[in-house]
Amino acid sequence: MASLISVIKERNKTTPTWLKILIPILGLGGLGVVAVLAALAAFVVTGWLGQPVPILGFDQTFEQPINFPHTVHAGTGQLVDASGNARLNQDLMPLEALGLDCTFCHRTVTTQANAGVPPVAQCAFCHQAIGPESSVPLTQLRQNAGITGNEPLPINWRRVTRMPDHVRFVHEPHIRFLTANPASIGNATADVNSQQAVKPALTCSTCHGDVAAMAQVEQVEPLKMGQCVDCHRANNAPTDCAACHQ
Amino acid sequence: MVTQAGFGNHKWAMAVDVDKCTGCQACVLACQVENNIPLNTQDRFERNRSISWIRVERYWEGEFPDIKARFIPIMCQHCENAPCEPVCPVFATYHNAEGMNVQVYNRCVGTRYCANGCPYIVRFFNYWEPVWPESLRNHLNPDVTIRSRGIMEKCSFCVHRVRRGVRKAASESRPLEDGEIQTACQEACPTSALNFGDINDPNSRVSQMKKDDRYYTLMPQLGTSPNVFYLAKVDEDREIALTGAESEGGDGH
Fold first, then answer.
1. Is A245 touching B (CB cutoff 8 A)?
2. Is A234 on the interface with B (CB under 8 A)?
3. Which domain holds residue B54?
4. Nearest residue in A to B173, CA atom
5. Which terminus of chain A has a lower count of CB atoms within 10 Å, N or C?
6. How far is A233 from chain B, CA to nearest CA, in Å?
7. Least CA distance to A245: which residue of chain B?
8. Which chain A residue lies closest to B156 (C-alpha atoms)?
9. Which residue has the higher pLDDT, B16 or A95?
10. How many domains does chain B have?
11. How far is CA A118 from CA A45, A115, A121, in A?
12. Does any domain span residue B71?
């Protein structure tokens, strides 16, 4: 502080007028200003930590019990590994992504509140035959499915997309609306907004982003109440509190 | 008439036929289970801090042996002109376009002004963090918020069931049928004393019941104009001049 003051005194002759007024104020109330700024910073940081938004790295990604690649199942085009080389099958032919519809696995999304996570048996339906035996995640999957002879065990997937507390979100009416009104679909990857009606899987991007391109799924939208209400107002949806808070 | 986008022009009401009520308390139990209400232990009961969104009040009429038990189920009356609403400093309770008196739990700060304002004593304060024994953990209804300590709660007209019914009808592209939406208490009532429906629909069951000569509301002198109304008990020993008398008769409960 002392050195700062000496510097200011040295430069006093060339200091502009607004700084001459500002410096005594800061000097007198310096501690108070610092305290207020610290409190503000603490408030903002706790706010961010409490309800993470995808800024400054506070987005939520989780290490899942089995590293399920949405890129392989839901994505399209040729598959590449971590170093960018094309992935090959046993006959050294390039592997292509499956391009499965979201609703193939998340089956209840068009009828119920929860999108639903498929049972291990559904994974095993394909993977008892498909995929190399050396693959670590597939070995674990087959163990969980009980194919290898042990007790079947459900996989404890971790929830990635979270809404704030006290809100009851139901997928079904949202999918119903967006399939009939594609103009309201957000984060669209393909040209869907100009179409008359789309299939349910094309509406997911509004809140979930382009999951098919995510190696590890993360929450891309903050999904706070302001976002919900903005969309509800724009689309003439109910804004009654009891529509969501029950 | 204020209409709410997306939900249609409904106004929910409940008709309670007191003549049919046997005082069996099935509604009380059904409500308790449906709405994740914590268990009312004896300790809480003795301190007048028990929570029951619907209660069956019992009145004795006459002297033994010429004595009659009178029962009347009382839940939130969802008043059009509710005394609980204007006193809330944070707008946690308000009237929505469907005639429901809504309690927004995450807005509530627990001033308890609304409970003091309510003449029907149907608002309840959570004095404790709700806990259930381990054996009951999986019985909780996922559609209903669990209210934490320090906030008010009351009968919601089973708003989650109403939303579910409206949603189901919309997904099947058909109008909502009368009687399709049932509240938990109505579902449990063995004598169909409780009837829930849309009063805006002139052909609905509640609209028909409202035209009954036995129609009355609780404490009409307060001008709260409730959406819950009652049909008086038919008693051959008494003249039928029962407007409001049922709730005021008897000598305490």
1. yes
2. no
3. 12-171+203-248
4. A176
5. N
6. 9
7. B104
8. A246
9. B16
10. 1
11. 37, 10, 8
12. yes
Q: Minimal CA–CA distance to B12: which of B153, B165, B120?
A: B165
Residue B41 inside a domain? The answer is yes
Which tokens is A147 given? 């194919």
The size of the A-B interface in CB pairs under 8 A is: 57
**A159-to-A65, A162, A224, B76 alpha-carbon distances in Å:** 11, 7, 17, 37
- H-only helix segments in A51-118: 70-73, 102-105
Co-location of A86 and A127 in the same domain: no
- The per-residue pLDDT for B116 is 94
Residue B216 to chain A, least CA–CA distance (Å): 28
Structural domain contains residue A17: yes
Average pLDDT over residues B213-231: 94
pLDDT score of A229: 93
User: Is there a single domain that holds both residue A123 and residue A89?
Assistant: no
* Any B CB within 8 A of A237 CB: yes
* A23-69: pLDDT as tens digits: 766 666 667 788 888 889 988 887 666 555 555 544 566 788 888 88
Tell me: do A142 and A202 sit in the same domain: no
Residue A144 shares a structural domain with residue A84:
no
Q: Which residues contact A124 (CB under 8 A, 6 or more apart)?
A: A141, A142, A145, A146, A147
Residue A59 lies in a domain: no
Q: Global pTM?
A: 0.80
Answer yes or no: do B167 and A172 touch at CB < 8 A.
yes
d(CA B70, nearest CA chain A) in Å: 33
Distance (Å, whole) CA B232 – CA A66: 63
Q: What is the mean pLDDT of residues A82-87?
A: 77
Question: Which of B67, B178, B45 is closest to B124 using CA atoms?
Answer: B45
Q: What is the DSSP letter of B71?
A: E
pLDDT at B224 over 70: yes
CA-to-CA dists, residue A66 to A81, A116, A203, angstroms: 17, 17, 26
B102/A173 touch (CB, cutoff 8 Å), yes or no: no
Our CA-based measurement puts residue B144 at a distance from the nearest CA of chain A, in whole angstroms, of: 6
Residue A221 identity (one-letter amino acid):
E
Query: Could you report the predicted ipTM of this complex, rounded to two decimals?
Result: 0.81
Q: Which domain holds residue A189?
A: 67-116+161-246
Q: Work out how many domains chain A is built from and give that number.
A: 3
CA B77, distance to chain mean position in Å, is 6
Domain shared by A95 and A213, yes or no = yes
Nearest CA of chain A to the CA of B211: how many Å? 30
- Can you give the CATH number for the domain in which B139 is found? 3.30.70.20
Cis peptide before B86 (omega within 30 of 0): no
Q: Check B7 against A238: CB less than 8 A apart.
A: yes
A183 found inside a domain: yes
Task: Locate the chain B residue with the closest alpha carbon to A165.
Answer: B106
Q: B221 lies in a domain?
A: yes
